[in-house]
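Question thread 4412

I'm putting together a teaching handout and wanted feedback from people who do this every day. The idea is simple: show students a protein as raw sequence, then show them the structure tokens that encode its fold, then repeat with a second protein so they can compare. Below is the first pair exactly as I plan to print it.
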Amino acid sequence: MSSPVACGICSGALELRYVGAAGPPQPGDFAPSCHRPRAWSDLYRCRECGTVQQPQLPAGDDLAELYREMGDADYLAEERGRRATSNWILDLVERRRSPGRMLEVGCGHGLLLDEARRRGWEVTGLELSERSAAWARESYGLEVLEQPLESLDPREDGSWDAVLMIDVLEHLEDPAGALARCRALLAPDGVICVVTPDPSSPTAWAAGARWWGYLPAHTYLIPRRTLRELLVAEGLTLTDDVAFVRTFSARYWVDGFAGIAGPASEPVRSLAGRIPPERSLSLSLGDERVMIAVNAPVREPEKPLAGDRGTDSSVHVVLPAYHAASTIGRVAADLPVESFDRALLVDDASTDETAEVALSEGFEVLVHPSNRGYGANQKSCYTRAILDGADIVVMVHADHQYDAALVTEMVRPIAEGRADAVMGSRLLEDRAIAGGMPRWKWLGNRFLTSIENLAFNKDFSEYHTGYRAYSTEFLRTIPYLRNSDGFVFDQEIFAQLVDRGARVVEIPIPTRYFLEASSVSFRASVRYGLETLGVLARYRIDERRRRWPLLRRPVGASGPVRTGSPKSG
């Protein structure tokens, strides 16, 4: 078979990571408890998104048939531990959603669904294995459908309060498509829970070819950063990203370690035999992630601030907001409503009346379930705008520090085809101090800007403005969802702009500093400055090594259209 040439997640170039020794796969190779070291075919790693993949596995009906014939006689030997693990997962899910309708994709023998039903959930499972599905139905009376996710009745869309994929994503031919399908199934405020091995973890790197995650049945092993990107690109709000804690008998754990112990495997297995069978152990190896994301709905105002202008370019104004109830009205009053089509405010879990005031002023409102940070707020703003069909997106701060009346000027260079991004600069005509900017901030801004111009070989007047406009066509070409959730997001996206050769136009803007305006403390500013210097260092190193994930290809629904499965050449 010829070598694959393109990643099935981002279409990036693949490099051979480990040479495999497996023959044609058998149904038993796909059993959850099958952990034979090096029993896989060739493993490739994407140079762009880092996904490790096994593209020589069967596909389509051939792959589905292997799963249908699969049995796993050893799975229930660890039933007590697996039920404990299931309840640990359900505890996480129920922090975000109270019991309702739950769908588990790849439910196996039904242990998690059985535990969920006891906790008040109305449960349904999908499972291809005929024997596992039969066990779940006959032993626990569960509703289990022997069909793949993509064939689920579209009339079920928008009706599930929780969709779970526990150790399933790595088995699928199209993981990104599966996440999109799950997103469509979720009800408003519904949650998706994904558990999958992380090939970028220190444990995976240390174990090398003996890592347990490299199995014959694993088609795609998606790194933590890439999985986060895929979830958020669907318009979901990521709320939890934690290491997976499993419970097994101590014997099971020790026997598993023996499988990667090399020459010491027999002494280790001998030790396992002396451990009392009733002794259990809850443990995380740090190489598998649990991610939970919420389908936070966009709330519609009774009287929208703007409407569709019927022009060739759809302009969306977005406001990242936190505790901005006292200033939103002034921003709304200044906005030139004839210059844009939609206005969205993303509330980062404020404890004041930010969301209610924004709705009353005509903004659409999306509320984060928990405080995620300034960068995470921008990710929601831009992703929502892209998914809603924007051609140009303008960010205006909700604290009234920037003049919202200048939206028309911010949009014009992009609409005229002269720019990919527009920056409102307080230092282009240098009226910042007159506008109330503290002198220490002015000095810090000037200093960092001069350093950044040297690092980027540019001559911009300011890098630290929060007044920005982007072409969404350009945003789709950069992996902004991999950026920090904090304030340094703005500098990371600047590095991406420079790396991609974006056309950036600056326009002069006034600034306002007053009591209600958001202000960053001196300590936080120092941290931000150090993080900015870190961005510059990574950028310069990447010029030689080309390994910084923030400058590689994006993935997911808000990025370029994927080309699908890897192709051979």
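The second pair follows. I'd like the answer to focus on this one:
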Amino acid sequence: MRHAGRGFRCGVCSRDGRGTVADQAPGVSGWSSPVVLDTPRGPQLITTAARFTYGLDPATGKELWRFADETEVKTPTPIAAHGTVIIAGGYPPGRPFFALRLGAGELAWKASKGGPYTTTPIVVGEHLYIAGDNGVLGCYDARTGTPVYQKRVSAKGATFSASPVSGGGKLYLASEDGDLHIVRAGAEFAAEEPISFGEPLMATPALAGGVLFVRSQGHLHALGR
């Protein structure tokens, strides 16, 4: 979906690269990446736009359902957890986030504030984690949206544009200030000593083969045991 103005939805064949515009998106703007999820009603393409979330047939682009909300800007990618798809966005200032029942587009729960601006939330076990651009890590019950804790990850401040990733029971949060923050997953906030790279970290780290890849402003770092 185009980032601003009258958006559109387009499917591209992976074999020959041919694309077909399915339709003009009813929403005026969209910033987040679409995602295909398995639902009780079959595979669905979940995509967001200003004030709407949509469920589409990924084969045809046909709209299966839509959900109206008050959020103008949704940058985070929708994520699936515990039979729901969690939708977040950064505007209006209250930053609400909510969960829709997979396949139906019906509201399961909603939190009125605490959502991210650019980062995609992550679910580890029973908990949903949100890294705020203000340096606050929010932990919520992934089934209800009930707050568990909100903690500032660094005394000197931190700004997050990269999304958190998880591995080995820990969360890894890359900050624009050049530090990789490490927080243990769970209901209690427990942070380890951060790793400083001396350069801004804007990209989301990647885990593969037991190695954590971190992209700083001018280098690619590989962290292993």
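Top answer:
Good format. For the second protein you could add a caption like this: The two ends are 40 Å apart (CA to CA). The CA atoms of residues 100 and 108 lie 5 Å apart.
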